[in-house]
Every structure is written in structure tokens, then in C-alpha cells.
Task: inverse folding
DNA sequence: GTCGTTGCTGGTAGCGCTGTCAACGATCCT
DNA sequence: AGGATCGTTGACAGCGCTACCAGCAACGAC
């Protein structure tokens, strides 16, 4: 065919328009807003585009329209299983849209986040997904000034920049502790790693629950800034045990730590749950098949990602959600690692007096 | 200041050039190839850019230069831990370059891969990272016709499209089996999930090793197309055991399966390694802290990603590597789950006759 | 019959940057 | 001294697309 082309052999919009017998601008409209065309031209352009194998040039589109079709995503870690689930949700939900995902890793640094945010915003993204609610003042200002929709994910809190999807880590931790209370546990240890804001809020939830029960003891808490791992779980548990041999259970800020604790118990011949109960957080897949199976707090990570992307895309296209804050909740999945032998039969007094060494203000139940 | 700007208030290259007292093209060169400028102009442009807070418009650059600074990455899964490590390597290595990563998930479908490849190539990426060596004929043709560097990752094989970084899954599996042989095991089961090409080649390695030893038996192999999980490991092992109660060890095509097998052994009170030895694949973090610790084949996933990105960027910038194929190797990490009590003391005959039911050609050791 | 109004279409004029090529002076070599 | 070479700089002309606005026909209201 004698149709003229760029030297690179690429098919341009002009070629499609020519073949369809319309003006380039009409062809352009076909790709952006087909409803605006008459049915006749629509089908003509469509078949011309298919025949030529036309693929729009996104750079030209971005330049001419002064906006991109890129959704920026800022997450703190690529290693953490939690974020791979979230990411999968984001990618799945954006897959059949016109938007592409631009991912960046803040490595749990809010300064790095600020830097990346500046970079992203300069390219005028169509939308932004950021992790958490703890941005720097500067970041916060940039986000508020941004002229694109923004979703904060992973947790919910007051004053959303725009939209927000997550759950309360505080409440989730509290619920986990309530479950341990219900199972008769009193001397509950806490182990946490990395101590990013969300882990910190889980700790806060634990502290609140323990204080409410008059069982708070600072010495039950072992944390580190080190990134989490199964091995670390074992090590932290060893530390906790060395300091407080009298604990009857451990709440782990995530499942890797919980698995590490389970292995450490096995190593020391500590019976789970008879001597020590274990509760994790996130409910990763392996929690259901370990021996004993491990209790955990299920979080809706995939949904968090997919809902965030879906909501963002809707907002980009002008259909803002009724309610900008979406609480995806959590569920305490009770498994063997925290089930005492005695069947739960309503509230009852523990069979042994908790060895409370509590020097803080509490409201006894 | 009375400097003219776009309505959006954005600073353009022209403004920077004006302030620096040079032509726009000189300013442009400053950002792409500073060495080409005289020191005087270089510093003038630099300070002008800083003063105005200039950020280049990538869309305009892409349109004018007919190429992008995007590295396309095609991976088969976002869930698999293996790929999150590879991805981390890729992102880390590209972080301080001018290139940005565009990620897409093929979901282990080579047809989906082909579709995505077409999409990517249409945008003229600066480079491409694709997973594996099993592309469709069409994909292969597109890759070969692409005018950008390409790295195939995760495994090595004959006929690289361009560059290649990985290791031999076949050899790695073979080495794992050799280790089990050395520990006195003979009746070695294989369990595998998903059965993507790389898992298939691990199976091939297992088969070759078993045949070489005259120990091959089809009934020792249990596989499924289902995606891998810890739970699945337990289930597959249960199947294997039901069919072949006489096995003395299991080689798992990945670590999740191995962990599942370990838990299933615990559930059934099977002593590991005394009754059943377990070997996994990839050496994920938890393998070193389970009880017993789990033997695995360590693969250099992070390095695979970072080396691929680094090599690709070098190639984009014209510095092609001497050797286009890089074998990152593997290491069998011998841990408790496969160590027999008797210390390894050179080659020795097994203490019991292997129940070989072998109908294939073999070369006995 | 005139004047909107609506629905569709096209022309013009860039978006901000870089490829290409030419020009220039300075330096080097024969 | 003349020419060649190098390093540095700038003018010009788009890259492929879309915003903006104008035009046109068809229709209905008054």
C-alpha cells in the first residue's frame, strides 16, 4: 500500500483518519470519547485503526493534552509480602484501564517519600496512591496542592488528603488482644520489628488493651527497628523470654515474626498453645497450614490495592465516591496457636492470677 | 519577575536558557550531555535551572527524541516471593539512573506476554527485561526486531535474544538430588506446583539425576498446575505418601512447598530428616530458621534483578557487556532437613537396597 | 421566518523538546 | 601559510497529538 508513513514505519493517527475518510481530530476523538462520534464514523475509524494496527503515541498525547495517564504509587517496601498483595490488587484493577502504574519505593523513609513525590508531581500524574498517613508537612502540602485525585492506603485516620482506604491497625491489635484475653491469657508479650507507623499503631492498640485490662507492663514489649524476618521473630521471642519467662502468650506485629516464634518454641520444646499462645498479624497463607495452625488478624490487602486503584480511576474520570474514606476492616482468625483446651464458655475468671507488675494507671475490668 | 511562562506556571527549557543567556538547544544539551558544553556555559545553565526549579517535561522529550527512558519489565507473577526479590533488584539498580520501570504481569501466560510485549514495543522503550526463555514464536520475532537492548532473566539457555542473566534450573535440581544421594537417600520424591517452564526444568534435572542413578520412577513425581502455596505443599506430599509410602526424601520445586511438607510431616509425626529428608528450592529466608532447618538451593534473585537492570542500562548507553550471558549460579545450602546422622564419609553403599522400579536406560554409579 | 439550540465535524495552532546540519573560532598539522 | 580538524554553539523544523474555536446541518420554539 502506498500510504505515507513516518520513516520509522509507524502508523500515526493521520493515517488512520485518512483511511477512515475523516479528519485527524475526529479520529482522535474516537479514542478518547467514542460516544461523541456518529455511529457511522465511529465504525469507520474503528476498522481503519484495526486494519492498520494503530497504537497511539502516548508521549504525543501527554504533550498535547498536558496530562499523563500515569498513576503514581508510593510504597515503603518491595520485599514485604503485605505490599506484594496490595500491588497485585493495584495492577489487577488498573490492567484494563488506560492508566499505567509508576511504582516507587520509599524504603520506609518519609524524606525519600517527599523527594519521590516531588518527582512524580512534576510529571503531572493522573492520580496518586500513597502509603499511610504520616507524610512530612512538605509532602502533605504538595499532596494538597496537587491537581489530581489521591488515595492514601493501608490505614485510615483523620484528615484524609483526598480519599483513603485501609483499616484501623489500632483496633485490629486491640481485637487480637481481646481474643487472647477471651482465651484466658493475661501475661501477653508484644514483639514488633521495623516499627513503621502502622506497626507502632498496632503496638498502641496492644498497650491500650493491656492498660484497659490493668495488665500493662512495659517489660512485655520487645521491639526493634530491624526489618522483619522469621529469624528475627525467633530472636525477639528469645529476648522476651529471657526477660519475662512468665509470659503466657505473644502478640506478633506480623506473621513472619509469629512463624519465627513458633519455630523458637519448637526449638525450646515449649508447647503451643499450652504453654505459650501465639497470634500474628496479616494472615499470610502459611498461617493456616503450620503446626499448630497460627491465629492471625486477617487484613484485606489485595482488596486494599484493587479498591484504591478502582476508586482512583473513578475519581480521575470525574466520578468521585460518595464516601472518600473506606474502612476495609479486619478479622481475627482464631486458630490452634491461641485456642486453649477449655472451650470458650462466656466470660470467666482466669484459673490463675495474672502476675501483673503494673505501675501504670489502669481501669480494671 | 517578568519572565514569560506557560499558563500553567511551569518553567520550560526556554526560560532556563534565557536566564542562562544561551540558546535553548544548549540548555537541552546540558541535561543530556553536560560534557559537550564549555565549563562556563555549563555552570550558567546549571545555576539557572536550579534557580528556576526546572524539571524537564518527559513527554516532550520522548516525543522529540523518538524514544523514552522507560525500561519495560515483564514478569509472570507479583505474588511469588521470588519475583519480589528480583523486582527489588531491578528497582534498586535503576533508582539512580534516568530510567523508570514499567512493570507488567504476564500471569504465567505466554500469550499474555506476547500481548504486553506488543504494547510495550509500540512505546519504544529504552530497554526490556523479560522473564525466561520460552516466548511464543511471535514474541521472539518481535524481540529480535526490537531496536532496544533486551535482557532475559531467571534462567540461561541457548540462543539469547540479546543478553541473558540467570542460572541453570536443570543443574540446580540435579545438584540438589546429588546432595540427597550423598546423604544416602535413594527413593526421592518430587513435588512441584504451577509447572511453569523453570519448574519443569527443575523436574527435568531431577529426572536426569534419578535416571543416571538408575533410580527413576515415574510414581515418585507429583505435580499440579495449581499455583504454589505452603498448604499445597502439604497436600501434594500427602498424595505422594499415599501413593509411595516407601520414599525416604522429597525434593520440592520451591520453598513454600518444602515448608508445607515439613508441616505435614509434623502433623503425621514423621521425623525429619530421620524418616523423610526435605530439600527446597530458592532458599527463602525462613528456610534457615525452621525446625529442623530446611535444606535448599540458594538462588541469587536480588542479584539477578540488579545485574539485569545494570547490564541493560549499560547496553542502552552503548556499553554492551563483553559476555552477553551471565550465569549467576546457585548453591545447595545443606541444613538439618537433609543431613543424615552418619557423617558423610565419602561414597558408600546404601544400607538398604533401594526399591528401584526402573524401566529406563541408566548408568549406575 | 428567524433565532437559538444541539450534535457533529474540521482547521489551526501549538504542547516542550531534540535531531540535524551548518557555522564559527581555535587549534593542530604539514 | 594553508588547510584540516576539533570543540562548541545555534537556527530550523518538526515529533504526533489534542485544545480551542468555528462551522455546519438539523431541529424546534416562538
Result:
Amino acid at each position: 500500500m502506498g500510504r505515507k508513513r513516518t520513516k520509522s514505519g509507524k502508523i500515526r493517527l493521520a493515517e488512520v483518519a485518512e483511511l477512515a475518510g475523516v479528519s485527524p481530530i475526529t479520529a482522535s476523538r474516537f479514542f478518547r470519547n467514542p460516544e461523541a462520534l456518529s455511529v457511522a464514523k465511529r465504525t469507520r475509524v474503528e476498522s481503519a485503526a484495526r486494519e492498520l494496527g494503530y497504537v497511539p503515541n502516548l508521549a504525543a498525547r501527554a504533550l498535547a493534552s498536558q496530562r499523563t495517564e500515569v498513576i503514581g504509587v508510593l510504597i515503603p517496601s518491595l520485599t514485604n509480602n503485605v505490599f506484594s498483595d496490595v500491588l497485585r490488587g493495584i495492577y489487577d484493577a488498573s490492567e484494563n484501564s488506560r492508566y499505567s502504574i509508576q511504582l516507587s519505593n520509599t524504603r520506609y523513609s518519609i524524606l525519600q517519600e517527599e523527594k519521590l513525590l516531588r518527582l512524580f508531581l512534576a510529571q503531572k500524574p493522573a492520580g496518586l496512591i500513597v502509603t499511610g498517613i504520616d507524610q512530612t508537612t512538605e509532602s502533605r502540602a504538595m499532596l494538597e496542592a496537587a491537581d489530581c485525585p489521591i488515595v492514601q492506603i493501608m490505614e485510615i485516620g483523620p484528615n484524609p488528603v483526598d480519599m483513603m482506604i485501609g483499616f484501623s491497625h489500632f483496633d485490629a491489635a486491640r481485637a487480637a488482644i481481646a481474643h487472647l484475653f477471651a482465651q484466658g491469657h493475661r501475661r501477653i508479650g508484644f514483639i514488633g520489628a521495623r516499627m513503621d507507623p502502622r506497626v507502632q499503631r498496632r503496638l498502641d492498640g496492644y498497650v491500650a488493651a493491656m492498660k484497659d485490662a490493668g495488665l500493662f507492663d512495659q517489660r512485655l514489649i520487645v521491639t526493634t527497628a530491624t526489618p522483619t524476618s522469621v529469624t528475627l521473630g525467633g530472636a525477639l521471642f528469645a529476648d522476651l523470654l529471657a526477660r519475662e519467662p512468665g509470659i503466657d502468650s505473644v502478640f506478633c506485629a506480623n506473621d513472619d515474626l509469629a512463624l519465627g516464634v513458633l519455630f523458637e518454641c519448637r526449638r525450646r520444646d515449649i508447647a503451643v498453645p499450652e504453654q505459650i499462645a501465639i497470634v500474628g498479624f496479616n494472615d499470610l497463607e502459611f498461617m493456616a497450614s503450620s503446626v499448630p495452625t497460627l491465629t492471625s488478624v486477617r487484613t484485606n490487602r489485595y482488596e486494599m490495592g484493587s479498591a484504591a486503584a478502582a476508586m482512583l480511576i473513578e475519581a480521575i474520570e470525574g466520578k468521585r465516591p460518595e464516601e472518600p474514606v473506606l474502612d476495609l476492616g479486619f478479622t481475627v482468625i482464631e486458630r490452634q496457636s491461641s485456642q486453649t483446651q477449655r472451650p470458650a464458655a462466656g466470660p470467666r475468671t482466669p484459673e490463675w492470677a495474672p502476675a501483673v507488675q503494673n505501675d501504670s494507671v489502669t481501669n480494671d475490668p
